[in-house]
Amino acid sequence: MKKILIAVGLAALVSSASAQGLINFLNSPATLVTLADAEGNSLGSTPNVAGQFYFQLFIAPAGTSSDAAFVGGVLATNQASAGRFSGGVNVQVPGYAAGSTVAILVRGWSASYGNNYATALEAWNQGIAGYIGSSAIAPNFTLGGFDGTATLPTLPAFGGSVGIQGGFTLVAPPVPEPTSMALAGLGAASLLVFRRRK
Amino acid sequence: MAQSNVYSLNIVGYVNKVVPSGYSLLANPLSSGANNADEVGTLVDGSVYLTWNGAGFDYTSYDSGFGGWIDAAFNPANPPKLSPGKGYFYFNPGATYTNTYVGEVVPAPGAANSLVLPSGYSLVGSVLPVSSSAITAAPVSLPLLDGSVILQWNGVGYVYTSYDSGFGGWIDAGFNPASEPGYTVGDGFFIFNPASATPWEQSLP
To answer: What ipTM was reported for this prediction?
Structure first.
């Protein structure tokens, strides 16, 4: 019993020694977010009107390369500077201690879709006007904060040797192709004819 | 009437320092005058400077998208002061480059440096622009403090070395014998001083 108590005590000591991991959740002048139309033609950087886009940090175990394995975390919005967003400096990453290595990626979408990525993706897939996109993955990103010995500097999510390399693009939903539009029109017309004959 | 000329004796020079992508722990090795970050080296857009306030880091970034120098809340800020002797973390958002520090050697000939190492952790660098394979040996001459800890940055994390006479001298984080750390010109490092404030004194070789 005494041994168990000592073990519990030590575990508490260790967990309190290492603080939560931190990240500077923002992009930089060299890693701007741009927009593109459905055909992929660039529309330039996101406009310098704050609050038009949401950005979310997604985390997975270090080395993860599959998009599906990432879990959503802290939210950010675009700033009053073209192509820029920020969710803050020294932002906590729940579940990961300072000094731990994780894989990160950032997803962004139009604020008109709401602040939930899954809902936004559904709306985009339905062709509702807006933009959505995802950054490249940084597979081995070290979180800052107090690691039990000293305070590690907090890294920005983008740039440097372990951050996300380069900016990324938010794309408009695909426009239904003319042939499928024509087929839909044909279907509607035949329905009308069918009704009249009835 | 005879006029006497007054001469100011000083040494001016430069130091090239390779700055890799990501964080480096640096210290300005030469005095450029005011020693503000915008005159101490190449100004890189998106760079971040972390200076130690005794308890945590003060964040300053140079970001043209927000008008220049900003703090952690994107408010306008002054460039950090990086006088010789003060260590700082520097985040290089791009590729490796070489920064050239230009300025005066401190101290001037005939004078001496005295940098106070307060009790607890401080982030420092050698005021004198020199390197040494042993940090307590001349010309770096860091005072040998029993129970002190030195944290140097290897690009990913800290390298821990402590001087502890109870364990036979220099040891690593696992209490194993270790070599005395060296010092490379332009590097910053943390030192933990377990005693009261102690001066770090240096003079020209």
So the answer is: 0.80
